[in-house]
Amino acid sequence: MSCATSVRVSNALGAGLPHAARRSAHTATALTALTQASLAFALVLGRNVWGAVFTDLPEVGKRHSVDCQRSWQACHAPDMWSLVATASWRPVR
Fold first, then answer.
1. Segment 27-51, tens digit of pLDDT
2. Are residues 40 and 1 part of one domain?
3. Checking CA distances to 77, which of 12, 29, 35, 44 falls within 20 to 30 Å?
4. Taking the complete model, does pTM exceed 0.85, yes or no?
């Protein structure tokens, strides 16, 4: 995408068309943002599936979801004591 954008912008500038160069740059930026947002959305939707892609163990997906939830709680707990009081930590096997 960056190479194609560079060529189009350079050609437009060389032809003396600054508005076309600007439009090409804005279009490439918008397409890149749309692509990144789509991929991020797909990753979020498939967050419970990625473990199954790499292993057949059913615990992997469950354990990962629990660890993510605990990580979120650790970052967003009002204070550490409320986290310790409500969490049931156990070692990873």
1. 999 999 999 999 999 988 887 777 7
2. yes
3. 44
4. no
How far is Cα 47 from Cα 67, in angstroms, rounded to an integer? Answer: 13
Question: How many helical (H) and strand (E) elements, i.e. helices and strands, does the chain have?
Answer: 5, 0
* Residue position matching structure tokens 């970052």: 75
Tokens of 33: 């943002």
Q: What is the pLDDT of residue 18?
A: 95
Q: Which value, in Å, is the radius of gyration of the alpha carbons in the chain?
A: 23
Provide the residue range defining the domain that includes 67: 48-93
The label of the residue with tokens 């600007």 reads 22
Low-confidence ranges of the chain (pLDDT < 70): 59-93
> Residue 7's Cα: distance from chain center in Å?
29
DSSP state, residue 31 = H
Domain count, the chain: 2
- Do 55 and 80 fall into the same domain? yes
